[in-house]
Fold:
Amino acid sequence: MIGIGKGECFGAGTIVSAVATGLGASFGLGLKVCARVTLTEDRKFVLKNEDLKGENLLAEISCKRTLEFFGKDYGAIIETESNIPISKGLKSSSASSIAVIRATANALGVEMKKEDVLNISCDCAIQSGVSITGAFDDASACLLGGVCVTDNKKRKVLASYQIEPELDVVIYLPPRTIKKEIVKRYKDKIRKLEPIVNYAHKLALKGDYFTAMNLNGLIYSNAFNEFRSAEIAMEMLNAGALSAGMSGTGPSVVSLVAKDNTKKVIDAVNSNIKEGEKIICTRVRNLESW
Structure:
């Protein structure tokens, strides 16, 4: 054993999906991944990720690339615990990767710049196949919190600002997932929506993340024929949510809700809940100093 390190990262929700244009915006959630990395001299990688099954390759690559970044040739035992639902659009992959990167750096006893953490995470997402672009908007919100408005192609944060702190996040979780292959199938349809998505992105840049999120949800729910997600979002809005929409490529729906209306929104969705569907509630996570 060479060293033991710990790291954590949080999930995020979509304000504007970058799928159509490469321009995105996300906000921090209170859901979290914790990672523990034990460095070894045998150059083997052992994964113990019961809460993140299906993301073992991403965790291994995240650890390896961090070690390579610092010129080290070690093996590692990687352990994670998470309460972020997987493959639901809540950025579990970005959060898992960043938590492992930070835990690996901690085991080495070194500090990392946030830019390096984000770039390594995006490279790992591409290499492992969990993302085509690297999901820079998701990674930024997971690491930094608050609202992050980004240019994913340039890997640049265009704006970051505090989200209203006294908000709950009510999340609808269906039992199914949306595969990346389905997103590719709708590529031509999505491209035709670029002008509307660009408008939503401009709203997010100006600080109107509520309207941007509502518009984005309508755009992508219809683009992917996710009519159930659109139905749930409208129920949330009618019950008093400030904004609601499909997160990422779905199929989850996230809503931002003032505390006084949280129970109303939860009750409204629960009144129309189907087998296998469920509701969870968390808080927003704001910008943190680095």
